[in-house]
Design goal:
about 400 residues, alpha+beta, Cytochrome p450, 5-stranded mixed β-sheet, 3-stranded antiparallel β-sheet, 17 helices, binds protoporphyrin IX containing FE
């Protein structure tokens, strides 16, 4: 029998078996070996070509270590060796400036300056009524049926439509983008089917970019296409579309599904939420983000010999930032495995990361979740999963991919 110390985090069966991140394992490592050396797992190749042959790496399970490394981009790089979750890391591939999360610091801040305005509170307030309307429409489309499959019929539609709204993608193309987005979000099985969603999305990006050159507007795609300081080439525009279509989709839809699942598992917490939705929803969303950590990790590479939390680390070593473990660190969250929507410090979670690469869409994600959950909780208050939901087989996302519900 494999002991906890010998368990390899790159075991694709680990998360589904645990219905999420392996918290008993993380607790053990945090207590006995908080900067843990995880050996390569040659048996794991992943279903994406770039994920095969992963190296050994350090796994950080303490909140403070994950935070310190995330804040220090010069010493712990996301461009050298990649910042992605391990299963989608590209080995030796050229990084394009379109891959926001893998840019060098100076380039990263220049690009962020251009793309951030639509994600700031004022711009988000302007699209809030449209997001509320979309959330209401989505729930209207199922509310009289008494049953549906929550992930695809409800949760996945808002992130895609919101992404279209933000980018300036016209309404008649949204279902097409939703189809590509859903296919792209299935990280593990994508290449088993085909590369078509990516090619399709790139084709669409080019068509739209051409249109935005001819008829500029104030939406993100137009801003990027027409910005003379960035001078993005077509491939970079494609990459941007891809990053945003993926980054904002799987994560937000999974958090909505986890929310409903957890409320069903914890009727006392659901009763608190329903007693005063407006008073509790913000904190409840943060607690669900903390508790589930849907993006369970990203990685960094040490740029020099150094130390993390007193453990020596060598130049070139890979580092796995476990947001899932950090979010259950008892040094920060009292009784961390308790799900408590009134938890005073729930919003300190690291589910969106922290530091220079902190999630661009964090505010937007919360806004969407709030709009959608308000519709669900008020119009389908007795919603409940039928049987056990299906979890994504993944070493990166803690994702529910199928959850039939009745209401
Ligand atoms: C519940 C929903 C979401 C979760 C849990 C989530 C989580 C994360 C995490 C953990 C990171 C990496 C942080 C780091 O490495 O330090 C990240 C980065 C990013 N996210 Fe999100 N995300 C969510 C929604 C969104 C949305 C809605 C968008 C946009 C529409 C978005 C766009 C991005 C982008 C562009 C980055 C790269 C930022 C950079 O490198 O500067 N995310 N997200």
């Amino acid at each position: 029998m494999t002991s906890l110390m010998d368990t390899n985090i790159i075991d694709p069966g680990l998360f589904p078996a645990e219905h999420g991140p392996p918290h008993a394992l993380f607790d053990h490592w945090r207590e006995h070996d908080p900067v843990h050396w995880n050996p390569a797992n040659p048996a794991y190749t992943g279903s994406m070509p770039e994920s095969s042959g992963v190296k050994s790496f350090w796994v950080l399970t303490r909140y403070k270590d994950v935070q310190d490394v995330s804040m220090n981009q010069e010493l712990f790089s996301s461009h050298e060796g990649g910042h992605r979750g391990l299963e989608s890391r590209r080995r030796g591939s050229r990084k394009t400036a379109g891959e926001l999360h893998m840019m060098r610091p100076a380039e990263h801040s220049a690009v962020k300056k251009v793309i951030m305005p639509p994600f700031m509170p004022k711009a988000l307030a302007a699209i809030a009524p449209e997001i509320d309307r979309l959330a209401a429409d989505i729930v209207s489309s199922v509310v009289d049926k008494g049953e549906c499959e929550f992930v695809f019929d409800v949760a996945s539609r808002l992130p895609i439509y919101t992404f279209c709204e933000l980018m300036g993608i016209p309404e008649h193309l949204r279902d097409q983008v939703a189809e590509y987005g859903n296919a792209l979000a299935d990280v593990e099985s994508r290449t088993e089917h085909s590369l078509n969603p990516m090619i399709g999305l790139f084709g669409l990006a080019q068509e739209l970019a051409e249109e935005k050159r001819r008829n500029p507007d104030d939406r993100l795609l137009s801003v990027m296409v027409n910005d003379t300081t960035l001078n993005l080439d077509p491939m970079q525009i494609n990459q941007f579309m891809l990053v945003f279509a993926m980054a904002g989709h799987e994560t937000t839809r999974s958090t909505a599904a986890h929310f409903i699942y957890l409320m069903h598992q914890h009727p006392d917490q659901y009763a608190i939420l329903r007693s005063d939705f407006e008073a509790h929803i913000e904190n409840a969303i943060d607690e669900v983000l903390r508790y589930t950590s849907t993006t369970t990790n990203f990685t960094r590479t040490a740029m020099a010999d150094t130390e993390i939390g007193g453990y020596p680390v060598k130049k070139g070593d890979n580092i796995y930032l476990s947001y899932a473990a950090a979010n259950r660190d008892p040094a920060v969250f009292e009784d961390p495995h308790r799900f408590d929507i009134t938890r005073a410090n729930a919003k300190r979670h690291l589910a969106f990361g922290i530091g220079p690469h902190v999630c661009t869409g964090a505010r937007l994600a919360k806004m969407q979740l709030r709009a959608l959950l308000k519709q669900v909780v008020t119009r389908m208050p007795d919603i409940r999963p039928v049987g056990e939901p299906e979890w994504l087989r993944s070493i990166w996302f803690n994702a529910i991919i199928r959850m039939p519900v009745t209401f």
